Amino acid sequence: MSESKKLTKRQAAVINDLFAGELEEAEVLEKHHVQWRQYERWLADGRFTEQLELRIAHAHRQSRMILAQCAASAAAKLVELTHCEKEETARKACLDIIAPPAPGGQNRQAADDPASDQAATPAAAAGLTPELAGRLLDALARNRQAPADNGSS
Description:
Blueprint: H1 9-20, H2 25-31, H3 36-44, H4 46-81, H5 87-98, H6 109-112, H7 122-125, H8 130-145
Helix pairs in contact: 4-5
C-alpha cells in the first residue's frame, strides 16, 4: 500500500471537532469549509473511517471505565433505595437488585409498566417465578420493618 496512512490536517481537525462535543456534525463541516459531498468521500476513504472508528472505540472504552468506576456507589445507592418510604421506588430498586439489566443497558420501560407482559419483567427474565420474586420482595420488606438486630442470627 503506497498510500500514506496519515490524514490531512483538515480531516484530523474535523475528527477532533466531531469528538469535542461542542458542535453538531453540520456545524463542524461548516466551520472547516467541508462540503457534504467531500465529507461523504472522506467517509468512503479507509484512512478517514479507520481514524473515526478508533476515536469511537476510544470514546466507548472511556464510557465503560467511567461506568465501572461508578458501579460501587450506584449499587450502594440502589440498596439505600430499597428502604425508601415510597413503596414503588423501593419495589423498583428491589427488582433491579434481583435482576440487574444486562450489559449494554436494556430498556427498563417494560419493567416499569405494571400492565406490561410479565415475561418482560427483570425477575421473569432472570428465571425467577412471580412467586419467588414476591417472596424475596416480602422478605426484603419484613427486613426493612424489623429493628436492626446484630446479635441473633
